[in-house]
């Protein structure tokens, strides 16, 4: 059997906190009835308590210092780990942020079928059921594409929600996949699937937020396109959310030329410094041209807003702002 896990340190946290650990045998007994979400952690405890409050006994944690064999057999290398255990005993791994809302989203989405069925009547409700939703419209001759859609849904079901309208589709219409990115208020659709990877590319393009978070894992993808990058370094989620809300229209307007990203100022303190942002400061904005290495940290007095940033970008393009040099200070014309 496979389960989830934490370090012995967490046992201490669990004795004093709101943890509601279950034993391995108890967990086994749950197989065959409801789905069970498993988690372990110390840093996670507050968020976890919030999840437990709304989800009740669908949510349990396992103490790996007491269930070491079980946890060892799971072969998981880092803690804490969150899994959805399906009635069959099969587990789905959670990869998202350690935040109550994100964990709840995961629980709800993975509790639905991998691909739901919708009709013209209820498809609009389904469109807003999750942050990112895909709806496939396939006719009787599109079974190959439909199978591809189902395979992709299996792969991404921990992150996005999927449905089809199979059987309700009008004859002769081309197969179409619609995408709803609700946080970004964008809707896309495609009937163009020239290669086997077309569908997955569409899934990726559509699910990428207008202003994503840059991390070590995805940074290359931004540099590869050679577009200039508008960095913003943040120290909290609230700061990130406020910035994204303010800049989203601007980022959409310039999406062809610029990547707007946010980056954790503490985790990537070195990167912030390389972009000309003083160590320890937050809310630093800097524009980077990956083609020649030029960086343009925002050092003007005005508070950062979409309007102010648009003017700053225009000044950079017109050569009114000189690139910043490490150690050489900063001069602006
Ligand atoms: C939409 O309606 C159909 C027909 O009533 C039903 O079978 C299906 O389960 C519904 N889908 C969702 C996601 O509620």
From TrEMBL:
What range does the record give for the signal peptide? 1-24
Q: Mind telling me which GO cellular component terms the entry cites?
A: endoplasmic reticulum lumen
Which stretches are annotated as coiled coil? none
Compartments, record wording: Endoplasmic reticulum lumen
Q: Name one GO biological process term.
A: protein folding
Alphabetical list of InterPro entries matching this protein: Thioredoxin-like_sf (IPR036249)
Cross-referenced CDD domains, in alphabetical order?
A: PDI_a_family, PDI_b'_family
Pfam families this protein is in?
Thioredoxin_6
- What is stated as this protein's family in its record? Belongs to the protein disulfide isomerase family.
User: Which named protein is this?
Assistant: protein disulfide-isomerase
What organism does the record attribute this protein to?
Parachaetomium inaequale
């Amino acid at each position: 059997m496979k389960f989830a896990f934490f370090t012995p340190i967490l046992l201490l946290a669990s004795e004093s906190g709101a943890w509601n650990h279950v034993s391995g045998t108890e967990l086994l007994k749950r197989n065959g009835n409801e789905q069970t979400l498993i988690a372990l952690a110390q840093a996670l405890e507050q968020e976890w308590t919030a999840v437990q409050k709304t989800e009740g006994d669908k949510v349990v944690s396992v103490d790996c210092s007491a269930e070491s064999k079980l946890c060892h057999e799971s072969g998981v290398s880092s803690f804490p780990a969150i899994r959805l255990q399906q009635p069959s005993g099969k587990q789905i791994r959670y990869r998202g942020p350690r935040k109550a809302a994100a964990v709840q989203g995961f629980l709800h989405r993975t509790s639905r079928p991998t691909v739901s069925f919708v009709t013209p009547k209820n498809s609009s409700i389904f469109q807003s059921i999750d942050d990112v939703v895909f709806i496939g419209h396939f006719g009787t001759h599109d079974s190959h594409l439909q199978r591809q859609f189902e395979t992709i849904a299996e792969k991404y079901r921990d992150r996005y929600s999927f449905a089809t309208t199979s059987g309700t589709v009008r004859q002769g219409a081309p197969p179409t996949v619609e995408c709803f990115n609700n946080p970004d208020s964008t809707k896309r659709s495609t009937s163009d699937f020239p290669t086997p990877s077309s569908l997955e590319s569409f899934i990726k393009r559509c699910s990428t937020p207008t202003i994503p978070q840059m991390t070590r894992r995805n940074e290359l993808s931004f540099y590869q396109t050679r577009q200039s990058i508008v960095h913003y370094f943040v120290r909290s989620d609230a700061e990130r959310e406020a910035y994204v809300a303010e800049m989203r229209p601007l980022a959409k307007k310039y999406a062809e030329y610029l990547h707007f990203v946010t980056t954790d100022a503490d985790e990537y303190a070195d990167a912030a410094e390389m972009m000309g942002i003083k160590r320890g400061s937050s809310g630093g904005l800097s524009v980077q041209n990956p083609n020649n290495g030029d960086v343009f940290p925002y050092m003007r007095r005005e508070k950062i807003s979409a309007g102010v940033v648009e003017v700053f970008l225009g000044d950079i393009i017109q050569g009114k702002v000189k690139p910043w040099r490490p150690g050489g200070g900063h001069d602006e014309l």
